[in-house]
């Protein structure tokens, strides 16, 4: 029991660390959008262009470092769950331990998918920046109607992606809340079953209720069948 509790505390620390790092990763994705050269098209000096380039380089380095930290934490949590927590839970043969292992596996799965989505979004933004990097030349705005149209379409698509991401994040939060409620309800059900096994006579009361319900269902079914047969006899006769 003490061994599993220690592993659970370690898993909780990794869970919180993952939440913090992935949240910072999402903020970094937004920063890439804000600091992109296309959002500084009014820069008129070469020093401004150099500052923007340096900012982009720093952001890339920060993104790579944070991504490596997230991957390392995901690997640590995966090893902890599958090589330590799961065997201990199996040896203890306790339902609540198995439920906790399942919960942490779901957290690991959700965190991995969330990180992959954020990483894919960052890569798409970088590809987009490379695609439209010709929109500015030496800090001077290029008057190209076709490029202007492409940039407007790009901004519209970016806004749509942001809205969709926001909706998906809300749906993910709701799903996590429902999942936590389900875990709590399963825990309550387990406690009720344990109480039923410990309290004398409670199982007999539950069985009597089930038998009475089954008898009532049978009476209703027979009554409905008789009504149907009488109706058919009356109509066809």
UniProtKB/TrEMBL annotation:
GO terms for cellular component: cis-Golgi network; Golgi medial cisterna; Golgi membrane; SNARE complex. Pfam families: V-SNARE_C. It is found in: Golgi apparatus membrane. Keywords: Golgi apparatus, Membrane, Protein transport, Transmembrane, Transmembrane helix, Transport. GO terms for molecular function: SNAP receptor activity. It is a single-pass type IV membrane protein. Residues 39-48 have a biased composition (Polar residues). The chain crosses the membrane at residues 218-236. It comes from the Eukaryota. GO terms for biological process: endoplasmic reticulum to Golgi vesicle-mediated transport; inter-Golgi cisterna vesicle-mediated transport; protein transport; vesicle fusion. Residues 38-62 are annotated as: Disordered. InterPro entries: Golgi_SNAP_su1 (IPR023601). Belongs to the GOSR1 family. This is SNARE component. It comes from Chaetoceros tenuissimus.
